[in-house]
Predict the structure.
Amino acid sequence: MDCGEGVQRRVLAESVGLGNEMTILITHLHGDHVAGLLGLLQTMSLSQRRKPLNIVGPEKLLRWLKVTSELLHIGLTFPIVFFRARPGTVLRTPAFRIRAAKAAHSVEAFAYVVEEYGRPGIFYPEKAKKLGVPEGKLWSRLQKGRSVIVGGRKVVPSEVTGPPRPGRRVGYSGDTRPSASLARFFSGCDLLIFDSTFGQKDAAKAVDRKHSTSVEAAELARKAGVRRLALTHFSARYRSTAHLVSEARRVFTNTVAASDGLSVMVDYPAS
Ligand SMILES: [Zn+2]
Ligand SMILES: [Zn+2]
């Protein structure tokens, strides 16, 4: 999600395989969100990436990529599959889908939600045995949510499995003012990563520069009913982010400050 100047260093430090299946989401065309993209693409080429790379972003991003790679004579070893961001579902992979919504920033900007598909409910073998369903193919059909016929009787998945389990949802705001529509968009996210450029005492600057304060991020997280909030995009004016976090926690307890290399486990929501 976004590709600032330092991204290559982080990618190497975290040993992210550059040849892996990958989708890059770009929220908007400000330097701190795209400056690292060309370098990253070139490094992927140097490591002989062959797999297509998904890039999601505003329409202008594709223009910028085309023009700069032409002017700089950059040839890539892999195809880019570009998905233009617009409100709604922008990309589906076998494992998840990505939805976009308009953000409220000084240039065209989008927020994203990465959403896993739901999984069928937990399978109870004893129930299947009781109904006379023989172990094997028929069990796996039921586990996948399909009905089977046993001795002329139809057995439906709900007879032998628990309720369907929802997938996990991660939201990312990019740079934005908070808004009611974003609160709806991020509703029920298991993790929300939200713009937290300013502290309360600089609230006027947040309005002026079309960013959010950590308290505004927390208020939105509460409205949206998310499970956890990660604050990000802190202004360089603050030596420490501790006060941004404590201001936010007064509104929304389950808040952390994102930082380089931080890893956060996203648990499955209760079904
Ligand atoms: Zn920006
Ligand atoms: Zn920014």
